[in-house]
TrEMBL record:
Entry keyword set: Hydrolase
Pfam families in UniProt: GNAT_like (PF18407), Hydrolase_6 (PF13344), Hydrolase_like (PF13242)
Name of this protein: HAD superfamily hydrolase (TIGR01450 family)
Superkingdom assignment: Bacteria
Boundaries of every GCN5-related N-acetyltransferase-like domain copy: 282-326
One GO MF term attached to the UniProt entry: phosphatase activity
Species this protein is from: Pseudokineococcus lusitanus
One Gene Ontology CC term in the entry: cytoplasm
InterPro entries: GNAT-like (IPR041065), HAD-like_sf (IPR036412), HAD-SF_hydro_IIA (IPR006357), HAD_sf (IPR023214)
Length: 336
């Protein structure tokens, strides 16, 4: 009997968006057929995003434009998770200062809360999310409310946003302005914290999928969920090899097609003082604290073997240097 695929081993896959399903206005190759195959296999799909500026309806519409049909109820945003945190702390009907794009105020309304726009409206909480038009006036209102004792919840703290021209200022940079002005520290709803992912999973066995180690993978760790890193976005393969424990994914894939494959095994073999890790045709060997790699295997197989070796050695307090020429063989993954 064939081994279950990564997707078939869970009830729901939690997919990051930018860098995983699409890149700006372009679809990521292989994403649409992988999502369709998950649905055909009876696995639920949730699109989970730290981007708080847009309501789920707009996110679903954008997904349709990149050939991934989606319903609004399949989308989970950090604004929604933040609104739930506020409601749990303050109760339905609470007045909340909404800072960010229309997705922030919409999430508050949907959660039974009352969004307001000024600290003079006596809000009991502030929900701060990204919005391209957020400026000094909105940030100052947030600072006034936080200083007055309002609960402060940030949808996410991503310092930058991926854009076609390069990294742009993200919500974390705007949150830093309010923090600098008040000395307060917000509660955070989005990745890498657990609330957004736990809300999206709804108590079911889930797999977190994304391209960023410090948000998607770290968020999976915080939520106690397995993770799949894909090489289609921000983090390059060499960064994965050097990742600290909290940023290490459970599984490695080139793209979302990895969801349709069984988990890849890495075999470990000891021969006296030497240890070899093997994945497919790739072989990585460490002897006398020197790492070498054989010529075989695909870049992804080599990455799996390198991660197994480097992580084991780092955890044992005996890290090894990976030669630049070996890391260079991972470059085809980064060019995707």
């Amino acid at each position: 009997m064939p081994e279950p695929t990564l997707a078939a081993a869970v009830e729901v896959v939690l997919l990051d968006l930018d860098g995983t399903v699409y890149a700006g206005g372009r679809p990521v190759p292989g994403a649409a057929p992988a999502v369709a195959a998950c649905r055909e296999a009876g696995v639920d799909v949730r699109f989970v995003t730290n981007n708080a500026s847009l309501p789920p309806e707009d996110v679903a519409e954008h997904l349709g434009r990149v050939d991934v049909p989606a319903r609004p109820d399949e989308v989970r945003t950090s604004s929604q998770a933040g609104a739930l945190l506020v409601r749990e702390a303050c109760g339905e009907g609470a007045r909340v200062l909404a800072v960010g794009g229309p997705g922030v105020a919409g999430a508050l309304t949907d959660a039974g809360l009352v969004p307001v726009t000024s600290a003079d409206d006596a809000p009991v909480a502030v929900l701060q999310g990204f919005g391209p038009r957020v400026g000094w006036a909105e940030l100052t209102e947030a600072a006034y409310a936080v200083r007055a004792g309002a609960l402060w919840v940030a949808t996410n703290t991503d310092a930058t946003l991926p854009r076609e021209r390069g990294p742009a200022i993200g919500n974390g940079s705007l949150v830093a302005a309010v923090r600098n002005a008040t000395g307060a520290v917000p509660r955070v709803a989005g990745k890498p914290e657990a609330p957004l992912l736990l809300a999206a999973a709804e108590g079911r066995p889930a797999l977190v999928v994304g391209d960023r180690l410090d948000t998607d993978v770290a968020g999976g760790h915080a939520a106690g969920l397995p993770t799949l890193w894909v090489s289609t976005g921000v983090d390059v393969a060499a960064t994965v090899v050097a990742a600290p424990p909290e940023h290490r994914p459970t599984h490695l894939g080139a793209d979302l097609g990895a969801l349709l494959e069984p988990p890849a095994a890495v075999d470990r073999d000891e021969d006296g003082p030497a240890v070899t890790w093997a994945s497919g045709g790739a072989r990585v060997r460490v002897e006398d604290d020197v790492l070498t790699a054989g010529d075989g295997g695909t870049p992804l197989e080599l990455l799996r073997a390198l991660c197994a070796a480097a992580w084991e050695r780092a955890d044992a307090g005996r890290p090894v240097d990976v030669p630049a020429e070996v890391l260079g063989r991972l470059a085809p993954l980064d060019a995707r």
